[in-house]
Specification:
The chain is an alpha/beta fold and about 325 residues long. The protein has 12 helices and 7 strands. A 7-stranded parallel sheet has the order 3-2-4-1-5-6-7, sandwiched between helices. Strand 6 (about 195-200), helix 8 and strand 7 form a beta-alpha-beta unit. Helix 1 packs across helix 3 (about 35-45), helix 2 crosses helix 3 (about 35-45) and helix 11 packs antiparallel against helix 12.
Length: about 325
């Protein structure tokens, strides 16, 4: 069995930009073992003063939109043209049957994964809602402490629970396809309302005109929504990861957003609000874990579960009975 590392060893490696130590630290925060969680929290607390200096960008989109292809092209653009150090936290869907994940994002980003200024970490979403792994926020802190300027959080896909990513990033980018049906009905309104920018992907070859048409439709739709608290009007653009083209426009949109929100104070206020959101989320998760670890709950849960399954007791009555044990 490998010797257990101390918190100080993890912290020193992370602050020195050691990729291997960073990966081991992320594995630590992903662990469900109580002993690992205690050590992970010690590491997080120690590196926290060195975090918070990056730009956090959430990237989501419909299946088939080409998130991984876009991220590789956009990431290489930021590294080569903007001199950024980039970390990509790619969240893979987890099977509800087997609990397994493919974790194939890194293999789809060959050029980016071998770039010395990029770090790609695929993680399973597990049972977490929101399209992000339970440990994603902690992983962001670790990557920031390791010196990365920009952090992409690539989420599982678009859905009602996908919006959790919005609570941990500074800029929310939605990728969409043109000509894939009724664009304005293809996603949930809530996702569009939270988007800071929409990029129509695969705008190349015979698809260029379709992409331009989709861009006009989205621009018209976004004007119907109330202005965001940030004072920002979401921008819509087209891009191609293959040519590549339009990537500079997307980055210009990001920088304009940052200029506006840092100037009016919204950027820092949003981060403070996000900290509180994750405090309450951590409390909720902690209460749930403590509940299922409680001795009497573990003893009586099988019998009560059976009663509910057979229809002899309502789920609400059973839950109330179990909660009274804690």
């Amino acid at each position: 069995m490998a010797k257990r590392l101390s918190a100080a060893t993890y912290v020193a490696g992370i602050l020195a930009g050691d990729r291997v130590m960073l990966s081991r630290a992320i594995t630590l925060v992903e662990s469900r073992l109580a002993s690992d969680q205690d050590l992970a929290q010690e590491v997080i607390d120690a590196v926290l003063p060195h975090s918070g200096n990056s730009l956090r960008i959430g990237i989501t989109g419909v299946p088939g939109v080409g998130k991984s292809t876009f991220i590789e092209a956009f990431g290489l653009y930021l590294i080569r043209e903007q001199r950024q150090k980039l970390a990509v936290l790619a969240i893979d869907p987890t099977s509800q049957r087997s609990g397994g994940s493919i974790l194939g994002d890194k293999t789809r980003m060959d050029a980016l994964s071998t770039n010395p200024d990029a770090y790609i970490r695929p993680s399973p979403a597990g049972k977490s809602l929101g399209g992000v792994a339970r440990s994603t926020r902690e992983s962001i802190i670790l990557c920031e402490a390791a010196g990365f300027d920009t952090i992409f959080v690539e989420t599982v896909g678009v859905g009602q629970s996908e919006t959790a990513v919005h609570a941990m990033v500074d800029f929310f980018l939605l990728l969409m396809l043109a000509g894939a049906g009724d664009e304005l009905q293809g996603i949930k309104r809530g996702i569009m309302e939270m988007s800071d920018a929409i990029a129509i992907t695969k705008a190349d070859g015979t698809n260029v005109q379709k992409a331009k048409t989709a861009r006009a439709e989205y621009r018209n739709a976004l004007h119907l929504y109330p202005r965001a608290a940030s004072g920002w009007l979401p921008q819509v653009s087209t891009c191609s990861a293959l040519q590549p083209s339009g990537l500079d426009t997307i980055w210009k949109t990001v920088t304009e957003y940052l200029s506006l929100t840092k100037g009016n104070g919204y950027f820092e206020q949003k981060r403070r609000d996000q900290n509180l959101q994750w405090l309450h989320e951590a409390i909720r998760q902690g209460l749930e874990e403590n509940f299922y670890r409680h001795g009497q709950v573990k003893t009586q849960l099988p019998a009560i579960t059976s009663e509910v399954k057979e229809g002899h007791k309502s789920a609400f009555a059973a839950a109330a009975e179990l909660l009274r044990l804690v």
